[in-house]
Amino acid sequence: MKNRVSVLTVLALLIIGTGWWVVGQISSRQVLDSPGVRVTNVPLVGEEGRLVRTNSVAMPPQLPGYRYQAEPVTDIELASLPSDTVFGRARYVPASGPWAQVNVVLMGTDRTSIHRPEYCLTGVGWKVVSQQTLPFEGQGRMIPKEVQRFDCRLRTQIDGQPTDVAGVYVFWFVSRDKQTASHWQRQWWMVRDLVTRGVLQRWAYISFFMPCTPGTEDAAYDRLSQVIRETAPYFEVTSDVVSQ
Questions:
Q1: Pairing assessment for the beta strands 199-202 and 31-35 based on DSSP bridges
Q2: Exposure pattern of 100-132 as b/e (b: 16+ CB <10 Å)?
Q3: Which one, of 98, 148, 82, lies nearest residue 121 by Cα?
Q4: Which of 110, 163, 194, 237 is the most buried (most CB within 10 A)?
Q5: What is the maximal distance between C-alpha atoms in the chain?
Q6: Which pLDDT score is estimated for 13?
Q7: pLDDT of 29 strictly over 70
Q8: Are 221 and 149 in contact (CB under 8 A)?
Q9: Do 219 and 168 contact (CB within 8 A), yes or no?
Q10: What is the pTM of this model?
Q11: 194 sits in which H/E element
């Protein structure tokens, strides 16, 4: 019995060791693909107005009916994400009604720049109360074919009173030649291309958020959808972005 356990242990260690060797060989030969979003030399600002990056993902400086407002990247994000992560962030404030925030996270050579979107929301106190994949209508190569929509709730204090606020969070992922609303589809494509072609797809995680009052999530989603249609074409690069 002991001999059998010893053999199984050795085999397991060999399999694990071989797996790590294969991964190491692939990683050492990988080529980083071009990004699927436009990167500019516009500096990125962190907390307290500090310069934290010399480049950023392009954000439209004007949006019809909204006022542009630069949004900083937090120290927590800078400390927890790889140093070659590129960000793009802006808030668009209308004359009346809720603001819309746009956020882009572009990975570099480290795949951990992008993780499950739920982690970002729950990490700052939001609770995802519903989740759905929706077809998205619009013209242009950067307009998503599908998006993920999360309806969220947050218990907070307003004027000293406990209050529930709501929000709508919409996102999808883009590489040089692919787009998807599925976190798992993105991971499969990335692993497939890394193993079969030695190419590490450089994915961008594009998200939009709009706060609202509970019960008005559908109206907020409609309004946010228009912001997406106005904003997404600005991210476009020369390569085609298509669904596969």
A1: parallel
A2: bbbbbbbbbeebebbeebeebbeeeebeeeeee
A3: 148
A4: 194
A5: 76
A6: 52
A7: no
A8: yes
A9: no
A10: 0.84
A11: helix 183-197
